[in-house]
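Renewal narrative, Specific Aim 1. Our central claim is that a sequence can be written position by position from structural information alone. The example that follows is taken directly from our test logs and has not been curated for this report. It begins with the structure tokens describing the chain, in the order in which they were read.
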């Protein structure tokens, strides 16, 4: 099964792409995909995506097909073939 991941700002610069498609044998959770990305791209990516306690950073928004994972099953949300996961940075203004 294939899942597309969209990157913005820092991650886009670090990875050098707007999006990537990953293939998994079984339905991955959001947390598993984010761990996979952190493992693939190293310390900077891990520090950007995770708190020191290992939880996903709350300042980031994780959207599955345009829906926030907070309205789904949180980090344990399973993705299906063809789903799109977007990692959105915090929005600031002033």
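The sequence written for that structure reads:
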């Amino acid at each position: 099964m294939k899942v597309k991941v969209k990157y913005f700002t820092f991650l886009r610069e670090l990875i050098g792409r707007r999006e990537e498609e990953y293939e998994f044998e079984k339905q991955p959770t959001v947390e598993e995909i984010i761990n996979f990305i952190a493992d693939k791209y190293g310390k900077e990516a891990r520090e950007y995506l995770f708190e020191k306690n290992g939880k996903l950073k709350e300042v980031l928004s994780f959207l599955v097909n345009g829906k926030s994972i907070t309205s789904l099953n949180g980090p344990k949300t399973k993705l299906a073939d063809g789903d799109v996961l977007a990692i959105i940075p915090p929005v600031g203004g002033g």
